[in-house]
User: What shape does this take?
Amino acid sequence: GENVEQHPSTLSVQEGDSAVIKCTYSDSASNYFPWYKQELGKRPQLIIDIRSNVGEKKDQRIAVTLNKTAKHFSLHITETQPEDSAVYFCATQEGSQGNLIFGKGTKLSVKP
Amino acid sequence: NAGVTQTPKFQVLKTGQSMTLQCAQDMNHNSMYWYRQDPGMGLRLIYYSASEGTTDKGEVPNGYNVSRLNKREFSLRLESAAPSQTSVYFCASSVMGPDTQYFGPGTRLTVL
Assistant: This one.
């Protein structure tokens, strides 16, 4: 089945720096790649997603890039702020229509 | 519009006791999911219901059963709780299949 590897597991940056989280996947049929943010004690919430017909998508300070040939996708956060501190999960679907498989998460800490 | 709601928020059980976690959504979504979240393990799919009247096993179904009561409600039952089922349980829903998933607030379950 699908396998999603997420790195790093923890990331600490200074406020204003950029943060990058990377995920690799195994199923070449996957075509949907969402990213979720989970603040401490809260529910996961979608922050951005990308489908395989595009290579990059931006929404203000966050962007996601996709390399289908290499089977990896990345989350980029620019000008980080303390409120960006959270656990971020990547996910991809199993096959072309299957359920989401989540990475194990990256705990991002933004130091003021 | 409450989105996805879950009850209870917290529960403590003794080994061997049973309980049902309730989930409801008011977004007219077709697909509903139950996940468990353990430290360092990400979100793992227990059971899902692609549409009203159907349920299927996910990655970690052992020890659980589900019921899709109607389009709005999807319950998770632990027949004989075990300490290994101590976890945070999230219900989620999506319009259809691998699309944006909306999560409930979670249930923190401890089995002694």
User: Anything to note?
Assistant: Chain A touches chain B through 21 residues (CB under 8 Å).
